[in-house]
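Data deposition worksheet. Section B asks for the primary sequence of the deposited chain exactly as it was used as input, without tags or linkers unless they were present during the calculation. Section C holds the resulting structure in token form. Section D is free text for depositor observations; keep each observation to a single sentence. Incomplete worksheets are returned to the depositor.
Section A, Depositor: J.P.
Section B:
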Amino acid sequence: LLKKQADGMVAARMWPLAAILAVMLQVQATLPLGSAGVRIALSDLFLPMLLIYSALCILRMRRRFQWRMPGVEWWLLGISVVMSASLLIGHERLGRWSWWALGNKWAGWFVLVAYFMVGGALVRLGGTTLRAAFLRAFLACAAIVALLNSLAMPWLFGHYTLPFGVEFDRATGAMQNSNAFGFLVVVAVLLAIATEVRIWLYLPPLVTALWFTASRGALLAFTVGITIELALLPGRVVPLLKASAIAFLAIAVLTALSVAIDPHMLSEMKSGDAPVGFLSAERLNPEGGTIREREAQNEHAISLIARAPIFGQGLGYIIEKTGVSLHNSLLWLIIETGLVGAVLVTGFLATALRYLFLGRSDLFLIGMVAVSVAFMVMSVTGEFLYQRHLWLLLGMALAVPSEAPRAV
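Section C:
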């Protein structure tokens, strides 16, 4: 009883920090550093303070990290060593330091590790109580942003700009990128289905926003993730269908309103110039320009593997040589970190997925099984390894809550 009361006090004390983190994770900005810039989440600015505070609390309460998955620290250390070696290899191959490699990829990896550890610390300190509070703040923020963005789409289709100058014709939320926002929406949908009773509060705005992202990768990840989740939670089928019906009605109304405001949009949709969600010739065409472009990038990338299959070409090689980032996480890992790096990262994620599945009596872990599979699927269509919320949630899922006496 005393232990439960202590956990409750810790959860209450850390709840404001967790709520701020849940919101700031979903807001991104691009700093004008290097040729490609450095994209950060607002939570990156908040992360050092939270990391130090969590570490002090862990030490003071004498609660060492406990993980559902054995050897977590060794996995992360091994990947960190490979990333550091790849940074040096890239410097040697390019003949100079690449800011993209140094800032976005190498330092970015350690930022992800920090998020993972913070997620684990929150659960070790505040248990399932703090975890549930964080999730509600995370889901509420995602749903509110999705609702506002969806309602704004008819106006944005007509103007293609916000009052403060950000131009776009696809839903991006506060993530600056429609695909990144699409993945965030997928994560929120899957976690809401698994952990929330009143999913009708979350799913209609989230599914509507997913439509307006026009992200094919997110739609594919959503389809696969939902299939996995409903196989594990068949009782969620009826609530999901009801919530989806509301979302489809909202999509139809907002689409009709968009076309009413700008009748020329119908002809533009046929040409693929202006996607209203997935209502675009380009979005629905498997031979579309962006798909062919990415297929060509992948073919070129595959040809590079044989040149350095074991340790790769080094961090930053692809973008420095081609000017664009590779839209496939696995190919990127193989080319720049070699088979060694790719095996370590995919091995870590596959092992984590196994232990999440073993702990599926916890509804949050069922949600994270679906999230993990959705991430793997979407990573074939883009580079999504560096999504902060994914790593924080993974740390929360793999950490043994403070209420549990020992690791599973």
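Section D:
The beta strands are 28-31, 38-41.
The chain has a mean pLDDT of 86.
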